[in-house]
Design brief:
- This protein has 159 residues and is mainly alpha-helical.
- The protein folds into two domains: 65 residues, no CATH class; 75 residues, no CATH class.
- Helices cover 67% and strands 0% of the residues.
- It has eight helices and no strands.
- Helix 2 crosses helix 3 and helix 7 packs antiparallel against helix 8.
- The longest helix is centred in the middle third of the chain and has 17 residues.
- The protein starts with 5 loop residues before the first helix and ends in a 12-residue tail after the last helix.
């Protein structure tokens, strides 16, 4: 049963690392998995469900027992979708978004193509002076790239 939820656990683990979700969401997911399975749940889900939501280290450690160490392309797309949502909802500024994208590139197993896109976007933003046409164009490229992932949700799972 645990394998059925590996992709979601990997997604939640990376999203916690990047600050894209709160621990409460992970605990609620584990509660849903437990409720959906009438047989005794694997220990890993019970551990996740009983973790303190603000103990991100413990949550991430328990998620690793269910998930994978390396993120799939679907997980990366879902994470970028969360980054996009945070930007368009106003939860994050563009500057904060660029920090998250830099962290995504550094800490998540992105493909070489995504790595290059992130690097190019970061360089464009860093090299463009504030309040210039060049900056506006760089910001537009970031927003346009993120919008490509705007409809991405969590990776599919059995939950």
């Amino acid at each position: 049963m645990v394998a059925e939820y590996a992709e979601h656990a990997t997604y939640y683990r990376a999203a916690l690392l990047l600050g894209l979700i709160r621990g409460e969401r992970v605990v609620a997911w584990a509660d849903e998995v437990i409720a959906a399975n009438p047989s005794p749940p694997p220990l890993a889900f019970a551990e996740i469900a009983t973790c303190a939501p603000d103990d991100l280290t413990s949550l991430r450690r328990q998620l690793l027992l269910v998930g994978r160490e390396k993120e799939s392309g679907a997980v990366v797309r879902a994470l970028v979708g969360l980054v996009h949502h945070d930007l368009v909802s106003g939860r994050r500024t563009l500057r904060d978004t660029m920090t998250v994208l830099k962290q995504l590139r550094a800490f998540v197993a992105v493909s070489p193509a995504v790595n290059e896109q992130l690097k190019t976007l970061g360089v464009d933003m860093a090299m463009s002076p504030p309040a210039t046409r060049m900056r506006e164009e760089a910001e537009h490229r970031v927003r346009t790239w993120l919008a490509e992932f705007g409809q991405e949700g969590p990776p599919p799972s059995a939950a």
